[in-house]
């Protein structure tokens, strides 16, 4: 019996699948979490070093940035006075 396809592309090149890395967003075709790549870029790693370390293309690395930007754009922050 074939398992149902649980994968959903949440951004071009970024997918979620309940069977892969506990449903966290990953780079399509890998088990590499998008947050890992964004975190490394934020920490100062270069795109080139990440590409080499994880055998990724520049397009895949940039897809994680696009996904992160889209998620941040959808976020609403409310400031509560006095806190």
Describe the structure.
The chain is an alpha+beta fold. The chain has a domain at 24-67. Helices cover 41% and strands 11% of the residues. The chain has helices spanning 34-42, 47-54, 58-74, and strands at 8-11, 14-16, 26-27. Helix 1 crosses helix 3 (58-74).
Structural class: alpha+beta
Mean pLDDT: 92
Q: Which bin fits the share of residues in helices?
A: 40-55%
Could you list the spans in which at least 5 consecutive residues all have pLDDT below 50?
Answer: none
Q: How much β-strand is present in the residues?
A: 5-15%
* Principal-axis shape: globular
Order of helices and strands: EEEHHH
The total count of strands amounts to 3
Distance between the termini: 55 Å
Radius of gyration of CA atoms, rounded to a whole number: 15 Å
Task: Record the strand order, biggest sheet.
Answer: 1-2-3
- Count of discrete alpha- or pi-helical segments spanning 4 or more residues: 3
Task: Give the biggest sheet.
Answer: 3 strands, antiparallel
């Amino acid at each position: 019996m074939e398992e149902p396809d649980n994968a959903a592309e949440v951004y071009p090149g970024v997918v979620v699948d309940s069977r892969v890395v506990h449903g966290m967003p990953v780079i399509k075709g890998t088990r590499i979490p998008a947050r890992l790549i964004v975190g490394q870029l934020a920490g100062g790693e270069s795109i080139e070093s990440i590409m080499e370390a994880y055998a990724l293309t520049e397009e895949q690395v940039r897809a994680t940035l696009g996904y992160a930007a889209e998620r941040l754009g959808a976020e609403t922050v409310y400031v509560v006075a006095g806190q």
